[in-house]
Amino acid sequence: MKKSIAHQINFLMDPNDPNFPTLRSGRSITGQEPAPIDWNDVQTLLAIMMAFNEQAMKDGVKYANAAGRNIMTAEDFILGLKYNAVPSTGFYTIADLESKIASWRDNEVVQDMTTMAMGGEVEFSDDDEEEIEGVEEEDVPFSRAPDTDEVARKMHAAEQEYEGWEPSTTQREAVAIKRAIDKCILELEKAP
Questions:
Q1: Domain residue limits at 182
Q2: Which of the 8 DSSP states describes residue 90?
Q3: Which tens digit of pLDDT belongs to each residue from 149-173?
Q4: Domain-embedded: residue 154
Q5: Whole-angstrom Cα distance, residue 141 to residue 138?
Q6: Integer Cα distance of 177 and 185 in angstroms
Q7: Does 131 reside within a domain?
Q8: Per-residue DSSP letter, 148
Q9: Domain for residue 132, yes or no?
Q10: pLDDT score at 44
Q11: Domain count of the fold of the chain
């Protein structure tokens, strides 16, 4: 059975993954001990990641609707990720981006993730596990939306831009985002 989109997001963009470069801290170029992790920065990075994923999901749903579907597939979500990753569109053009990030930063989920990253314990109630019932992802085949739809046209253009987009090594956040999206794509291609 194919894993849910939420599981893929949590697994593929896991900030606890030591290869998730935006959360590495204190690289030593002088041979000295690395600086301690600033957990305030970690919480802000998690909030940015959550706002980014939220927007990618919203755009993925818009794309699915433009394709005549009422269910977002993993492919729709990946298009949403690509759309929001490239510098010319999506996430960078959100008018109230700072307030969305601030809202996520104060969110209990982000605070719990920060606590867990710090090695702390977080208690979860049974209510925290939501069961999603209804249509399984594999029951809804992906179909591309027509270019006659404005949302689809913009997302197709962003997809083309993404394919040629190579952020510079000085753009560490962009490199991490591209690496994480590419990992999502590889995992999707491996899925049965």
A1: 5-19+37-118+142-190
A2: G
A3: 999 999 999 999 999 999 888 888 7
A4: yes
A5: 7
A6: 12
A7: no
A8: T
A9: no
A10: 85
A11: 1
